[in-house]
Structures are given as structure tokens and as C-alpha cells.
Amino acid sequence: MVAGMVAGAVAAAVLAAGGGVPDGADGGTDGELSSSVAVAAVADQYWMRAEARFAPPTAFIPSPAVTYEQGLVPAASWISVEQRVDERGTTVTARVRGMTPGHAYGVHVHQNPCGASPEAAGGHYQHVQDPVQPSKDPAYANPDNEVWLDFTAGADGSGSASAHHLWGFRPGGAGSVVLHREPGGAGDRVACFTVPFGSPPGESVEAGETVEQPAV
Ligand SMILES: [Cu+2]
């Protein structure tokens, strides 16, 4: 077994940091970085955290987090997505601030990065892929075979959700987290966050293949 993350063996880097938004230049956000990604990986472990503020697709300063429905996902509302992979599987956690208090959102990991159109994100990431796409068969479209992160925003507009699976993402197979108008796998797409999901460097996964951890 590979030991836990040892500081000296961890390759960590802030891969991208959107330009800091000067105070007052963006209509009221507080000067934090508009987006950032951090990654740490060693052998059979992988950790990634991405965060961003939502902006409409027409924003002068584009964001990896795109809102299509500002009534439910206002500009400058915030999201972070964390992915943790270890010998126990994959945990994905989403956290948001600035949503509509009390509203129940449907949230999933989708296949493609976001685009100007809500459809750009493609279908849901599926561990076992439905041969019929777009997938509507509940044998495939369910929270065990997909990553669902539905949440209801609290009175302060914040929310969070976490999903754990024994499997990991195929490289390049997962590209975004999409927020829907309704929970449960349906409803309009109201926002999308492009997320660089990854996998441990020690793993080489063929599409559709189940990974066996090497025995030591
Ligand atoms: Cu979805």
C-alpha cells in the first residue's frame, strides 16, 4: 500500500488563478480571485479543489462558472468543487454561496466543460455508460452510477453536498458540474462550472475498464 500523502512526495501547484478582480471594477465582489484550481497527486491518491464566482456567458471577464439563469444562480455567487481519490474511492464535494434561499437544486457531474450554451456540458458522467444517449434509463441514470450533488440552499443562500463512489473518473471523461432547476436528474440547466476532474498519476485507466489497485 502506498502510504498517506507525504509532504515531500506531493506535487502540488496552483494551476490557474483567474486575474484578481480589482475592487470596484466588477460591481461589488470583494477582490478575491475570480477563480482558482489547486491539485495534489501522488501514486494512487489525487486531490483537486476548484472554485469560482458565477458570471453570465456574456461577461467581459469570463469565468469557468457560467450562470444561465441569474434568478436562481446570481452573478458573483460562488461555488467550489473538491475531488478526493484514495484507496477508499472517490469523494466529490460541492459548496455554494449566494443561491436562492430555500430552493432545491439538482446537481450532477457532466461529461464536458461548460460553454455559452447550457447543452455544451453534454450528458451526465456515468461509470457504466448507457449505450443510449442521452441516457434516461434509470438503470444507468441513478446516483450510484452517476455523481449527484443535489442540495437545498439554506436561509443564507449557502449549500453543500457530497457523493462517494468506489470508482474513479475515466481520464477526460468528466468535465463539469451542472446545476439544474430541480433535483432528481431533470430540469433546466441553470448554471455550469468547468472542473478539471482528474485521477491518481499511478493509475492508467482505459475507458470502461475497472481499475484494480496493484497488490503490494
Ligand atoms: Cu445534470
What is this entry, summarized?
With 216 residues, the chain is mainly beta. The protein has one domain: Immunoglobulin-like (Sandwich), CATH 2.60.40.
Detailed description of the structure:
Keywords: Signal. GO terms for molecular function: metal ion binding. Belongs to the Cu-Zn superoxide dismutase family. A hairpin with an 8-residue loop joins strand 10 and strand 11. The N terminus and C terminus are likely disordered. This protein has a single domain, classed as Sandwich (Immunoglobulin-like), CATH 2.60.40. By secondary structure, it is mostly beta strands. The termini are close together. The chain binds copper (II) ion. The site of copper (II) ion has 5 residues, from strand 7 and strand 10.
Write the layout of secondary structure elements.
Elements: E1 11-17, E2 35-42, E3 45-53, E4 65-67, E5 78-86, E6 89-97, E7 104-110, E8 151-152, E9 159-165, E10 176-180, E11 189-194
Copper (II) ion binds next to strand 7 and strand 10.
Total number of domains: 1
* CATH C-level name: Mainly Beta
Please write the string of helix (H) and strand (E) elements: EEEEEEEEEEE
Order of strands, main sheet, comes to 1-2-3-5-6-9
Shape: globular
Distinct ligands: copper (II) ion
Biggest sheet: strands, sense, closure?
A: 6 strands, antiparallel
Helicity, in percent? under 10%
**Which class of secondary structure composition applies to the elements?**
mainly beta
The CATH architecture is Sandwich
Keywords: Signal
Family: Belongs to the Cu-Zn superoxide dismutase family.
GO molecular function: metal ion binding
Signal peptide: 1-16
